[in-house]
Amino acid sequence: MSDNNISRREFLKIAGTSAAVTAVAATGCGKAVDSTGVGDTSTSVSKNIPTDKMTYRTNPKTGDKISILGYGFMRLPTISNQSARESGDEIDQETVNKLTDYAIEHGVNLFDTSPAYCRGFSEHAMGIALSRYPRDKYFVSTKLSNFAPQQWTFEASKAIYQKSLKELQVDYIDYLHLHAVGNGGMETFSQRYLDNGMLDYLMKEREAGRIKNLGFSYHGDIKVFDYLIDNHDTYKWDFVMIQMNYVDWHHANQLNPMNTDAEYLYNRLAEKNIPIFIMEPLLGGRLAKLPNHVQEILRTRRPESSIASWSFRWIASHPQILTILSGMTYMEHLQDNLSTLCPLEECTDDENKFLEHVADEFVQFPLVPCTACQYCMPCPYGVDIPTTFTHYNKCVNEGYISVSQQDANYVEARKRFLIGYDRVVEPKRQAAHCISCRTCVSHCPQNINIPQKLHDIDDYIEKLKQGTL
């Protein structure tokens, strides 16, 4: 039996499950989640979370103790109780302050943001929330997000950096990332950071102490990553952020041919002893909303834990990880992650092998590799790209994608897909309105051919409507 191509029956046998799985599943899926989702938090959130048990890792350069859980300010709550990443509403600063207070009370001390997050207001919100504490109480992580060509001049890029200092209300930045350096390949990276002298300037800012640690976040072209690591002696990276979870470890390239397996990225950084930040620990929430039969297996093995906790424990069990960033929009997200990492219970060898099989099972499902990061938005023609992909993936996970009208659950699957789609995506924002302008493609850190995926989904919808599947 190949480890990378196992049947569902074989997988269930490996997991050691039986008819008891069905009984466990009957307890329900718990609270609904957004794109950051932590899945069923009903088991772990009910615990009393200790305030003195946070797991910390040491920055080898500074000696700073960094919380293994970092707070990502990508998807902040709004006054309408939605994520600011998905809505145009004003950020609910009072709630952000409360979440920040709770996080700090329970030992979180690393807070991450970007000038690009929450329509440009995330840094401002973080500055307000953190400025209420002594500066030595927290570490600020932000990014130089000079994505647009008009921002590639030295003056424009420097202005972004200086604005970050102002918005965050700080005199120095603890961790500054060159943001998403692989997007666009070496030519784009050179224009953003090398040709304009910006990287040289940032290295001087590090020497001056206004940047304590300089690194980069990586998506995209592996040639850029390899160039930066090969030249580590020149740039002396203090940290690097990569996407890593138990699926991306061996299957990132299988999910998307443009991506590189996290095992390679991790090992290259470990060889250089470069501390690692982790993004997308849940693949945009998809590892908290696994196919139902996989969730049932996970619950059988650790009924007291959420589905999301498996990924956080797996990542944190790797010693080179300095912190795991999680975009926790709601208190239940924060509480679930705290209960997992206060303190960390590392994965056993048996659990690691088990998660390898979970990953093998996961990639057999035809999911769109979207993490709902929203970088593709807004669409010039109004298409709600992330919500369309989220609905499609949800139906895949729940077994409501049909191959033909002869499928046993075809009638129910057709009903659920079409009615659900109209409920979550306004008709004027559905996939049918994509004209393949490809504006979104260059912004996608997962390198998804977004127009093609949208047309595939729209074609599927039309077949469902016409009864021609």
Low-confidence stretches: 1-44
| Mean pLDDT, all residues | 87
Helix content: 40-55%
Look up the CATH topology of the largest domain. TIM Barrel
Approximate shape: globular
The largest beta-sheet arranges its strands as 3-4-5-6-7-8-9-10
The span between the termini is 33 Å
Total individual domains: 2
Gross CATH architecture of the largest domain: Alpha-Beta Barrel
Largest sheet data: 8 strands, parallel, barrel
| Distinct helical segment count | 18
Give the class from helix and strand content and strand pairing.
alpha/beta
Number of strands: 10
Gyration radius from CA atoms, angstroms: 22 Å
CATH class call of the largest domain: Alpha Beta
Structure notes:
The structure is a single chain. The protein is of the alpha/beta class. It has two domains: 26-362, NADP-dependent oxidoreductase domain (TIM Barrel, Alpha-Beta Barrel), CATH 3.20.20; 385-466, no CATH class. 41% of the residues lie in helices and 10% in strands. It contains 18 helices and ten strands. The strands form two sheets. The protein has an eight-stranded parallel beta barrel, surrounded by five helices. The protein starts with 7 loop residues before the first helix and ends with a helix.
